[in-house]
Every structure is written in structure tokens, then in C-alpha cells.
Amino acid sequence: MTKIGANIKKIRTTKGLSQQSFADLFDLTRGNISSYEENRAEPRIETAVRIANYFCIPLEKFINEQLTINEILQFNGDKLLVEETQLTQLHLREIPFINDNIYIRCSYQELAFNDWTAFPKLVLPETTRNHLIALTFNHNIPHHAALPQYQVHDVLIFEEVTQQNIHLCQHKTGLYTSEKEIMLGRYEMNPPEIHLVLNEFRKQAFDFSQPKLFWKLFAVYQHVL
Fold it and tell me: By C-alpha distance, which of 21, 6, 1 is closest to 69?
């Protein structure tokens, strides 16, 4: 369980905001805020990012640590972090986000699955120099039966597979993205062959010469009801 609910309540009361006033800042309802504060639900990751950015709170601290009043008062500013200098100082980065809407549009070939510039962005802490991509899990995405039981609205963060991290991929969750399809599989390594396996009938051979096709699971943001 994250600390988001407790931190929302602490921020709200410290700033003198009602649940409705807080909700209005982020296009939410008072019921949403009540559910978060009582740990009956958690916001989607994009909502958590908006709240943390608005109050200039590092995202990792907002999610994982219980904030004190003094810490909240020390954070500078109640506005969205939109200036590049601020993003750089906080070591944040924007990454492409395949949410449900983007997945549907790509499935109908209105967009390509690798049309990164057309996708919405998530702002996350800078934790790796490799490319990252975010994906909202849904059961329509082809996926390996042995993968963990991800839930609808879980957000999976993937890191591009490189020669430096390929050794970490054996039996791990991976993502394949091409122009017309994506799939979630499991890496099977039998040197010199490396495959991302969907099932016994379908596997994709790994190729270092083609960038941004193969990704390994980097982090998971679980949507808890």
C-alpha cells in the first residue's frame, strides 16, 4: 500500500483546502478524494504525477513516504512544473504513455504503436539513461499466460533492452513494439538465440540492430481499488 492517501490528506489540510477544493484542482470529485484518503482506492499514476508536480513534491517521496507538515511547507510553489529548468533540477523526464485510448487508436491503425511523438507523456523520476515507455495493462493486449496477474489500469513501465542489460532479461516480462502490434511476453535466452515468447506458437527473435523494439519490465504502478 502506498502513502498517497495519507499524503493527499496531509497536503490538503496543511494548505487549508476542502476535499472539494482539492478535487477541483485536478478535475476529480470530492468522492474521489475521500476514497483516496480512506485508502479505499488509489489514483491513476497520471493523477498522482499531476498532484506531486502541482505541489512540487518529488514523485517517489509522494508515493512511498509519509510527508510531514514541515516538509510540505518547505516545498516551493503550488503550480505545475512546466519549465525545463525545473524539470532538470528535479531530475524528471517525460516518457511516452500507451494508455487505453492510444491502444484503441493504434489497434484501428489511426496511429502506429511506435509513433512515440503522438503519445501522451508521463513525467517520472530520472532513474536510468535508457529509453522508457509506459503502458496501461488491459486484457486485450496479447500476453504470455505465465506473466504475473496484472490488473486493468495497472501501469507497466518498460526500459529498452540494450547490450548492457540483456543479461537481466531471462524469464522476465518483456514488451515488443512494432508499427502495427505490441505484445507482452517472457524472455527466453538460449545463446546465441534470444526470444520474447508469447506462447508456443508465437515468439519474436531479438535483434540489437533495431532500436526501440524490445523492452524489459522496469517498474509497475498497481491500481488498487
Answer: 6
- Rounded CA-CA distance 206/210 in Å is 9
What single-letter DSSP state applies at residue 38? T
Element (H, E) at 36: helix 30-37
Q: Which helix (H) or strand (E) holds 185?
A: strand 182-190
Q: How far is CA 131 from the centre of its chain?
A: 13
DSSP string, 21-33: HHHHHTT--HHHH
pTM attached to this predicted model = 0.60
- Closest C-alpha to 49, from 217, 216, 221: 221
Q: Give residue-wise pLDDT tens across range 111-153.
A: 999 999 999 998 887 778 899 999 999 999 999 998 888 888 8
Q: What is the CA radius of gyration of the chain?
A: 19
Q: Is 155 exposed, middle or buried (0-12, 13-18, 19+ CB in 10 A)?
A: buried
In residues, how long is the chain? 225
Q: Residue 89: which of 76, 78, 71 has the closest Cα?
A: 76
H helices within 80-168, ranges in order? 84-89, 100-107
Residue 149 phi, psi dihedral angles, 5° rounding? -80, 75
Instruction: Please work out, in degrees rounded to the nearest 5, the angle formed at the alpha carbon of residue 7 by the alpha carbons of 4 and 12.
Output: 125
pLDDT, tens only, 147-171: 888 888 889 999 999 988 898 899 9
Helix, coil or strand: residue 79: coil
% of the chain beyond a pLDDT of 70: 91
If you search the block for the grid coordinates 504503436, which residue do you land on? Answer: 113
